Amino acid sequence: MNKTVNQKGWLFVAPVVLLVAFNALIPLMTVVNYSVQETFGDNLFFWAGLRWFVDILASPRFHDSLVRQLIFTFSILLIEVPLGVAVALAMPRKGIGVSVCLVFMAMPLLIPWNVVGSMWNIFALPDIGFLGWALNAIGIDYNFTQDPVDAWFTLIFMDVWHWTSLVVLLAYAGLVAIPDDYYQAAKIDGARPWAVFRYIQLPKMRRVLTIAVLLRFMDSFNIYTEPFVLTGGGPGNSTTLLSIDLVKIALGQFDLGPAAAMSLIYFLVILLSSWIFYTLMMRGEES
Amino acid sequence: MARITLSKLRHSYFPVPYKEEHWALKQLDLEWEDGGAYALLGPSGCGKTTLLNIISGLLVPTEGQILFDGKDVSHLPPEKRQIAQVFQFPVVYDTMTVRDNLAFPLRNRRVPEAEIAERVREIAEMTDLTPTLGNRASHLTADGKQKISLGRGLVRTDVNAILFDEPLTVIDPHLKFRLRAKLKELQQRIALTMIYVTHDQTEALTFADRVVVMNMGEVVQIGTPSDLFDRPHHTFVGHFIGSPGMNVLPCAIDNGKAVVAGHVIETANRISKDAALTEVGVRPEFVSLASQGLEARIVRVSDAGRFRIVSTECAAGPVKLLAGDDIEIPADGARLRFDPANTRIYADGWLAGSEADR
Asked: In this complex, do B58 and A184 lie within 8 Å of one another by their Cβ atoms?
């Protein structure tokens, strides 16, 4: 078959290019533009070069937010991935139970993020929220609005509640795709449940788990709405994650230049980490 | 090593079977001799995989018993039965090397490492896997993977029987032949009971000493490949085995003899009892063109290489016959002769009279 060479293809791609340009490229370029300038009122702009980048990278405030962000992201990954896999393993494989479980699992994912934040805020309030009230009633001194440890506990608990389902659904999809033959062969080979998990289920879930870890990594790194509604970054700065800090600088202080520089650094951190993650997790696949 | 006996076995996938159709496996009594090469042959859905899974212990039969050397194992789990099974889709443990795959069943049974190494070496040699022992199992071709599955069964010293569930389905045609030859060779060398499930008659007839033909959850005939060909006990066996299959024509009965379209057909057996449906069965190999006999019209002649398949139509239905290159095929009407020694009467599908010993 001969392929005709012509430029018609561009016409078909053009709408998407335009769309992406308007919702991603142009805003991103605007941010790049801001990041190298100093802004004043009355639309006054002055060239600032790389000053904001140097400032941000050297600022303790950014370091603290980044460290908090990393602690948050790795904590929730360490909890959500094993927990998600465990729940997926425990879910039924056939019968009415499957649909019931899937619906229950999907529910937290369908709730708007700010509603999740509000729900947990009220749920955890020490005086009127059920969780806060119950913890205090059994003798645990708990107040997430004043104690940083309590705030972190609540924040991580909320994220686990909200997002473990995603890992469960992905892991479950991986599990049900394993043909019965594997389980039967393992039975005949005398494999115990741990060996079945280690040598059949885990390797077969590898791909979906890679996706799950990547998604949770990126999403948790970007998280804004829920912690903003729950703690607003407090008490003090104790739960101020990167995105919350960014909004404080950009909209609270209207420092567009530093905020833009920080956004770009933030963006590059996510991009780089995701790439490293992906490369590491896929390396086993090829060797 | 053991003799496997199935006694009054029945199985249904319905929790409470109350109709005949609910039984995936109708009542069955079978004996598998120690060291025999068996094939379970039948169309898809005839119950052969069900039977295999019952023997290996993956399924517990609804009724009846499975005995290994007279010992009841009906309720033992697969790992306690000393059975190996090779599945339709090759099962390998992807993250392990070929060596670790072969060692896996032994490690699970806590065999000493030194002994494992020795066994694995021996089995790898037998299955031609030695050059790939250090490779990741996921990198092998389908036939290599199937050899690993087989090797995991052979590596165990305690195995009573190896069961194969259509093991060549996903293997490329040119490798199929090689792997099948390998299986046969291994079977003869180690004299292990092997039960081979397939719907492919060539596979069954070339692999097995004895073939068990199943249809609709029931065993219709057990015999050597030549038994099945020469003396089909059921019209199904006649159809299913042989290419083209046996000709089956409805017939009337007069004095225990078959009458097809007014012609008395000489047969090897006689019918003594009444039956709702009586038929005459004759393989195309035993039909010839003659100067007198059943009148037929020639419909089509197709060349099959060494011979030609002649499709004819007589008053009672289509009849195929094989004709050598030297035989002249008349253009219009012909007359057919059935070889009496190889023509039989079937009553309600089953071979009639005393010749059948079921």
From this structure: yes
